Amino acid sequence: MATETKAEKEITVEEKLFALYDLQKVVSKIDEIKILRGELPLEVQDLEDEIIGLNTRLGHFDTEIADLLANINSKKIEIEEAKTKIERYEEQQKSVRNNREFDNLSKEVEYQTLEIELCEKRIREFSAARESKIAEQQITKDKLTERKLDLDQKKAELNEIVAETKQEEEKLREQSKQIESLIEPRLLTAFKRIRKNARNGLAVVYVQRDACGGCFNKIPAQRQLDIRLRKKIIVCEYCGRILVDQELAGVAPASAE
After folding, report:
1. Which of 45, 112, 155, 228 has the highest CB neighbour count under 10 A?
2. Do 63 and 121 reside in the same domain of the chain?
3. 61/120 same-domain check
4. Looking at the structure, do residues 99 and 30 belong to the same domain, yes or no?
5. Tens-digit pLDDT profile for residues 38-92
6. pTM value?
7. Three-state SS string across the chain, please?
């Protein structure tokens, strides 16, 4: 542990800045690969979620259609029972002893007739609802088929891009790990925090046209001199990004400043 501490102390601020900028370049290339994949990973996830939802809906349709059919059959049984009662009451009317008994039986026949009409009405309603559910179910099945085809296509596109970039991404990630091992943990944590909060993922930027390369706010001349001297790590007072000079970034000679 003492040897590691000594090694860390031997790393100059300038070397830390070089390491940070190298790390930024590598992770920015990884970001470019992710951008190349675009919205495909999210689109694949959305399609998978939608397919799960459609399958769930189809399951509900099966239950609802089965329930409506059970209701229809139940009403048909009630109709048959009512018809049986009517036949019995009409048969009893043939052997009544007085008008009151005949009238009572007539009322029972009338009641059962109304029950049949009500059951037939309910059957029509249940049948219409069932047909509607079957039609909705078919629409959902067609939609599910389309979504599955879309998913297969999106997955194929994503897999193709991943296959093309996998080797490069793995190489870049290995490079980033190697560079990270050169940077002290506290500084690396700061780098990752700044990068996470930056809209474009840039935690380290170089000074260009006397301004921060991240937020483009002007940087005082003395502060620019300090940045070029590379004696301490300087961050932009506006956006918090780590600042390096153009020569370190390899974009212009020191004389161009």
Report:
1. 112
2. yes
3. yes
4. no
5. 888 889 999 999 999 999 999 999 999 999 999 999 999 999 999 999 999 999 9
6. 0.56
7. CHHHHHHHHHCCHHHHHHHHHHHHHHHHHHHHHHHHHCCHHHHHHHHHHHHHHHHHHHHHHHHHHHHHHHHHHHHHHHHHHHHHHHHHHHHHHCCCCCHHHHHHHHHHHHHHHHHHHHHHHHHHHHHHHHHHHHHHHHHHHHHHHHHHHHHHHHHHHHHHHHHHHHHHHHHHHHHHHHHHCCCCHHHHHHHHHHHHHCCCCCCEEECECCECCCCCCECCHHHHHHHHHCCCCEECCCCCCEEECHHHHCCCCHHHC
